[in-house]
Every structure is written in C-alpha cells, then in structure tokens.
Design goal:
heterodimer; A: 809 residues; six-stranded antiparallel beta sheet; 27% helix; B: 341 residues; alpha+beta; rod-shaped
Chain lengths: 809, 341
Amino acid sequence: MKVPFSWLKEYVDIDISAQELQDRLFSCGFEVEELIDLSEGIDRVVVGEVTECVPQEGTHLFLCKIDAGPLGKDIEISTGAPNVYQGMKVAAALDDSHLPGGIHIKARKMQGHMSYGMLCSGEELGLNDDLFPGSEVYGLLDLPGDAVNGTPIQDVVGLRDYIFDIALTANRPDCNSVLGIAREVAAILDKPLKAPATDYTCSDYVFEGFKVAVTAPEFCPRYTAHGVHNIRYGQSPQWMKRYLALCGLRSISVIVDITNFVMLEMGQPMHAFDLDQLESSQILVRRAAEGEKIVTLDGKEFTLNPENLVICDGTKPECLAGIMGGKSSGITQESRELLLECAKFERDNIRKTSRALGQSTDSSSHYERGVSEYTVELGMARALHLIQELGCGEVSSSHFDIKNGEDFTGSVMDAGYEFKGTLSGINRILGIEVPADTVLDILRRLSFKVERDGDSLLVKAPAYREDIEIGDPDLAEEVIREYGYDHIVPTFVQDATVTSGGLTPEQERKAKLKRCMCAEGFYEVQTLSFYSDADLDALHIAEDAPERRVIRILNPITDRLSIMRTTLAPSMLDIVVNNIKMGNLEGRIFELENVYIPRQLPVTELPDEIPHLGFAVFGNDEDFFTAKGAVEGLAEEFGLSFEYERAQDIPYLHPGISAYILCGGERIGYVGKLSNLVMSELKLPKDSRANHKIFLGEIDYAKLSAHVKAFQYVPVSEFPVVERDLALIADENIECGDIEKEIRKACKNVEKAVLFDVYRSAAIGAGKKSMAFKITFAPEDKALTPDDLNRFVKKILGNLKFRLGIEMR
Amino acid sequence: MQEQIKELRRQMMDAIGGIHSKEDLADFWQNYLGKNGQVAGLMKNLRSVAKEERPTMGKLINELKTETEARYQAAREKMEEAELAARDRKEQIDITMPAKRDRVGNLHPLTLTRNEMVNVFSGMGFEIYDGAEIEDDDHNFTRLNVPKNHPSRDMQDTFYITEDILLRTQTSTGQIRYMDAHKPPIKMLSPGRVFRSDSDATHSPMFSQMEGLVVDKHITLGDLQGMLEKFCQQIFGESVRTRLRPSYFPFTEPSVEIDVSCFKCGGKGCSLCKGTGWIEILGGGVVHHKVLANCGIDPDVYSGFAFGIGIERVAMLKYGINNIGLLTQNDLRFLKQFREV
C-alpha cells in the first residue's frame, strides 16, 4: 500500500525524517518494502528566470539567458520550446545536471551556439497535470511568478516528498489506508491525530419513494447509501488531484475523485450511481441469477451466477458489488442526482468473485483485505463532507442504512470489543515486567479505553480493531510492539518440565537406511512428490496397473505436476536422464520418501502415505549384480535375508534382467535393468545412449521395516569354520540359485555357498557349464574332521546329482 | 700349528671379503665352521700337537672359531640387509598413482541440514513427529485458527485433492495432530515436505519446513527467543544474536519474525544480509489461545510457543547456495560436494 509522506503529515505532526519513520514503522510491525524518494534522480535542476529570449535566425531555437540566482546570472541556454517568453520562470537543468530516467544534461553546442543546460517541460521532470498543474502543456513548464530563482525544482513542484510502500499483515486491514497508518504513526510518536473532518448538513431534499433493500446479508452485512442532488460536474482541487496521483490514480471528475480519495484516505471503497439512469427508484442488493449478465464500466461483459453479489435497480444489475460499477449507471457530465454507496461486503465472497471473473480492482482488493463497519460509517460521512466542502453537490436527507438485512439507525463507531485483561497476564506472556504505567500509556496511545483496578484491566478496543478478539495475548502484542521487542530477555524455558526427546526407533531406522545407501556409494536425491500421467506413460505402465490408481490434484499449477506419485521409478529415471544430459555418465542415486496410495477413488478420506526407497545405478561399470549388491548390502545391515524371483511383468524393466526382491516370502520390491524399449525412447544424447546401462530399484520401506527384528548376539563356535571348493558340471539352463538351494538342503552345516567362477569350453561340452562354488561349513559342538567334510561333500554331490543331474568336474 | 692357525685366519679373512651371495655365505660356513670345516679340522689335528702346547693351541683355535663365527654372523647380517634393501628397491611403486577405494555416497544437503537441526532440538528434549503430507482442511487451517473465509488462507495458495483434503501448506499441522495425542509438557519438532501452488523462480511448489512447539506452564515469549537463539548459535556459530520483529500468523499471538545477526559480516552489513546486518530466518510466536483450546488444552493453565523454519533457507545460508533450483535438480556434480560436518 502506498502512503505519501506529505499526506500523512496532514493528520500527524511528524517531526522525524522519512527514514526514521520507516524504522519506527518496521519495529511496530509495518514493513516499508520501499521508501520512494520522489526527489531522487533530479540534481542541479533549479528555478530560472528567462531574462533574455532571442530567436536564433534560421533555426527554431531561442537563445535564452537564465538567472538562476546564486547558481549564476546570464546562463546561456538554447531552447526549441515555442512557449518561452522573457520573464518566464522555468525549470532549468544546468550543466552537469540529472533528470529522472538517468538523463544527464551537459553543456553542448546547439546550432553553433553553446547551450549550458536545458529548459525542461513538466514531462521531463516526471510530472503530470495532477501532480503539478500545467505539467502537460506543450513546451516548457511555466512556473509561478513567485518562485525564487535558484531554488531546487523539487521544492517548487511538490517532489520534495516520499512515498511509503507498506506491506501489511493480514490481521491489520484497518491500516489499509492513509488514515489507518496515520493512527499508528500518531501512537508511535505520541502525537494527537488530526482526524479529517466528517461533518456535513443535510438539505431538506428527499428522494421520495426511493427504497434500498438487501436480500443477501450473508454477502453484505452492512449497506449504507445517501442521496446527493444538484450535482455540479467539475474538476477536483489540486491538493486532491496530487494525492490521488501520488497513489497512482488519475483525476476524473470531482465526484469520482471523492470516492477514490475516501477509499485511499479511509480504506473504504465507495460507488456512485446516477439516479437518472436507474430503471426504478430502488436499489436491491442480491445474489445474481444464474446466467445473468453485466457490462462493467470498462466495457467487459460478465456472465454471473448466484455466488456473485450484484447491486440492482428494479430489474438489472447495475454494479458488481465491491468490484466495479456497471457501464449504464456511471456518473457522467449530465448526472444531476446520485446515490452514494458505502458498504461492507464479505471479503471471501469478493475474493471468490474477483478470481472467478478475473476482474480485480482497487476496490475489490480493499474488500478482500476486509473493511469494517466503522469504516463504512466514517467513509460515508467523509465523502458527504467533501461533497459539501468542495461544492459539487448538496447532501439530501435521504439516508439508507441496512445492517444484517434490516434497517438500522444506530452507529458502530463506538462499538469496540470489550474484555477483561490483567497486567500480570501480559507480563506472563512476554516474560518480562513492563511497568504498569507504560502498559496503560501504550494502550491509551493506541486508542484503547482502559479502566485499571489493581492488576485487572477493563479494556475496550477501538471499533476499527476487529483483530482484537481474545484478551491478554492481544494486549501483550500491542504493548510489546510499541514498547519494543528489544526489551524481551532471552530465557531458556526456565520453568518447564524436563523432557527426553530424540528420534523414535522407527525414525532412527529410516536414518540408518539412508546411511546404508550412502555407504553403498549412493547419493541421496530429493524429487517432487507429484508428477504426471505422461511420466507413467513413458514407463509403459498399463492403464489398469495399480500405479495408475492415483490421487489427482484439483488445481495443479501445470499438468506436469498433477498426480501424487505411486512409485518412485519415474522420479529416479528423471534424475538419471538429467544427469546423463549434464555429462554425468555414471552414478548411484536414491531417495527415501513417500508414495501416496488412495484408500478409495474418488478420495473420501486421508490416503496412505508409504515411504519407498527408490534407487538407480547407471554407467558402464554397473550391471545387474552391482545393483543387486546394494540390495544385499541393505539385507545384511538390517539382519535380513532376501530372495530373488525373476520379474518378467514390470513394464519398464528388462524381462530377462530383473528380479522381485522377497523378504520372508513377501515381495517387498524390485531391482532390474531398464527395458530396451524405454531406453530407446529416452531423449538421451546419442553417444551416451549407446554406451549406457540404467538399473532401477524400489523397495517398500514399510514392508522391509516390518521384517526387521531387534538385533541379538549369536554365540560364536569355539571351533574354526572350514572351506571347500567344488567345481560342478551343470546343464546350461540350471541357475545358480537352484544349485545353492540344493547344496544347503543337503547339509545343515553349510553356512555359505558362493559361486565364484563360471566356465564353458568344448571339453566340458555344448549346453553345459562348469560352476565353481566356495562352500563354508560351520562346526557344531566339536571341530570338523576330514571325515566329516568328506561325508558332507558326498551328501551334497549326491543330492545335486539326484535333483539337478549335476556331476563333479 | 700356530702357523697353520695364522694361515687359516688369513684365508678366512680373504673368504669373508669374498662373500657376495647367499651361496658364498653357505660355502663359507661349510668351509670354515661346518662339522667337517677347517676350524673343526684344526681342532682334530690338535692331537698331533705337543701335549704342553695343546692348551695354548686349543685356546688359539677357539679364539679363531669365535672370531670366524662373529665374522660369519656379521657378513650374514650385512647380506640380509642388502637383500632386503634390494627387494625394497625392486618393489618400489609410484605412490602418486590414483588411490583405489569403494565409492561412498552422501546425503542430500537438505537432509544434512534437517539432521543437524533435528539434532539440536533433540538435545533440547524435543520429540520428532512425522506428520502426514496429505491433510484435511481442519488440521491445516481451521483448528489452527484459520477458519473458512479467513483472509490469511490467501497467504498460502493451496493444492486441493477434494474440497476438504489438501496437500499441507505448512508443517504447523503437526501442532494439532501432536496436541490431540499428547498433553503438556510438550516439546515437539515436526519436519517435512509442504506444498504451495505458487511457483516461480524463487518458489518451488514443494519445499521443506520444520515446525516446533513447546507447551507447558509459564512459557513466555522470552523463552521462544532464548531457545531459538541457542538453536541459531548451534547452526550458525556461537557469536550470532537474534532479534524479534512483530509479524502475524493466525495460530500465534503475539506473532514474531526472528532474525539472526548476519554470520558473514557480523552484523556490519554485506551482500548476504542485503546491508541490514540481519537475516530473516524464523517465524513464530506465543501459541494462540484458540489453538490450545481447539486441542483440549486449557489456555488459562498452559501456555506455549511455536515456530516454523524453512529448511531450504537454512541449507542455502549454511552452504552459500544462491539458487534454490539446485536443490531439486539433483545434479551429481552438486550433490557430491556435500558431506557431514
């Protein structure tokens, strides 16, 4: 919100600089996002008097001599402006001067004559007619005759001023106006507030038979209107034009300007209806009918529905309530009588309508922040006062006031929230002792009415402070922001109970899983929890696959981020592809974050959020077994043993190079090579696609975690383990896992049976392979003897031959 | 006999000088000190020496034997040393060649930061609560004193699943969930992902927050500053200070922003703190009476403070990361730089 410094000074005698005020506002909760210095960028531009003015023959130029007071007499400056005359007071940009927009003026030769500067137009000074009259004439800015030569131009044209651009917090809509900030400034500086005049006298004139009704009080809790007659169309006074211009509004006509001025000054949007243009003598505030249409002042047509509030005459909508007036009943030069509207509309409804229609105005943004009924009453009075003061109409006796749908004759100006508080309660919240007198003084400055009885306070908040609603905490906040947060003494919960804290075992386990993955050479990544249908399409996941039972976001920013993920595979692949594109041709990544599984579709209750471990390995040195190695590493760290089952039905993995991971017979995840089809469809640089291998894996952490048991030490045998190597000849189609299983089955002393070599040769024969296993035998209650070992080996070989037709090499 | 002994010693001395290999050494042993060696031979010849000379000659032979053994031993040691040195020379490698090691990965900078923050608060007695990322309106807004139609709902653009179910916009949801299940004394920290539908160069639709909550008897605004100042000192260095500024959150009253003095320039003003000497880091305040009451905790008996902190922001400040996008790009060249402190 923009607040001109000069405007603030109308209401408070401010005796500190704009920069100091900025700091004071900041420490009281009003952050000045930008302090705009209007004089900035203009330097060595002064009032000059044209003492001589001679047309230069053969050119359009005038050779002028300028009296710039102490900065020089007889300064020669050429100008092409046709309106220059001798005795004119002008804005003279001297040699080495600066104008807005970074323009640097230096002495230079013009048509053979040296010109030691430039005479300026209003536009060149960044002015318009509203900021300073005559600024938009063609040619030089003609300054008043009493301007003193040599005075910096900013002091003459009203640019010695600042604008505070203030970021308000959502709880302080009462400060969304110049007066609102002025109230705070008055409190900060402990100066009286010079409240703007709101008195007016009504004529005897009555708008006979005119009626106002509100049928949608839920959207319009307060509606006031007042008739004005004998309208005199005209221009606003300069002071009003200037304030509007400083806040970015252009002057239109005095009546329209008054409504805008009151909006900026009081924070109360207003509207004026031309009564001649209404179809009947009534105003009806109602919900729009389905499909009803309105054309607003800016010529746009909108189709409405009952969630939109409209102000109607007898038949048709004349105003989109709180947002913009209709084209047909706007104030014109011909308007004779008007109805001034000043209302409180429900902020949420204005927000919704404004967003739905894409129509946002200064008025709607005020209503969205919130307008109080206090402001409604104050704004109306102020507008009527200004109409009378500026002589642009007569205030009739027709006043309409509807509160919660019913006629209302009272006032809420003195209806602030009343509550009990205590001095000790305030101090208990703050943790310091604020002197009682200070508390009372601060509350007085903020216009709270306080009666003190010992420790207790009977408090009445000002009517515009609708954010005050509980008691001591509100008072504590008001007190400390004025008293200063630097009075708070940092303490360390000195009175609190000791608590133990820390991670739960489950949280520790998740952290451990991450550390394990790091130890396996993986880097953790963080990817978005949502992606798109297209990401699932890219992995050829079937329409009826479980991964397609997704939770959809109703209002995604983009289709690319529209569904909550059900598998981490697309996220992992995305990161791998991005890395390869960046030239990182090998790597290992993982993520341990949630997938989101709906309990039913459409969603009616909170879904299940299940942490999944997603991982990927890629690069020339990786193969299925390095990926599997990482999984085995996890199994070992968590004291589990995994089994692997060929996975041929995972659409994005290679059917021959992929496995389900089983734990205790339950599928807990998968690991495998990216399918040739998906690989060929990736948009990878050609050379890297040719060389690259990508392996993906995913483990349901919840399932994994359920199998983990508390660790227990197992006694170590006092006798040594013994190893034997066995070279076996097996049929080509027999898999390592089958052999391993049979070896274990044959002998309970087998602790490990690990394949360490596979060998094929003509001597072994076609369709056969030699497989060498290293078998570790564990002793029981006595040392293993050579006889024991021979017996074990014999049993193993016998079983292998019987079950798999395997011979010893 | 004496001549023989002298002669043998002379020979022996020559032979010692001629030892250049293990074989030479073995020959020497055999030749002089073996069972049938020359020193033993002299001893055998002692019988042919006159009886009265025998002790003298015997002594001389023994002296020769001792000397020969000592010289043999010295020669052997010298030989072994030389062999070892030769072997060492032969085995020498280029130690500047690349090391061989198993690759070890690392945690994402956000996790590192989060862990560090969790550790600090764990040490202060905070329990860690992992809240759900998909929440209902009640826990994300209404019970946090953001009723329907409240303008502060506009402060956070929300992703909706249904009219009532949404992606949480703040980890403050953890306050309600935790206070429903636990009664004071409470010290709770709830880190996690949050989602907002305002995405641009400086905002991601998903980011991480950490909510903290303390509820007990006699908790004050001073406690909030004191505890968070300790936190900031552990994260950013012992010398940092904090300051409070008024702010607004619907679920705290009074509400404050907590700034930390710039740890780069010490508060003098630099590019990191944009010349102010202070860095915005945390929001918080005294828990709103309505929030306590909404969770069945009597605000007349108990009080508390709550705070929220953006993990990305802390990570970026700590590591000097200037572009938030780097945290989600997951470029390995970026990720590989990070390590635990």
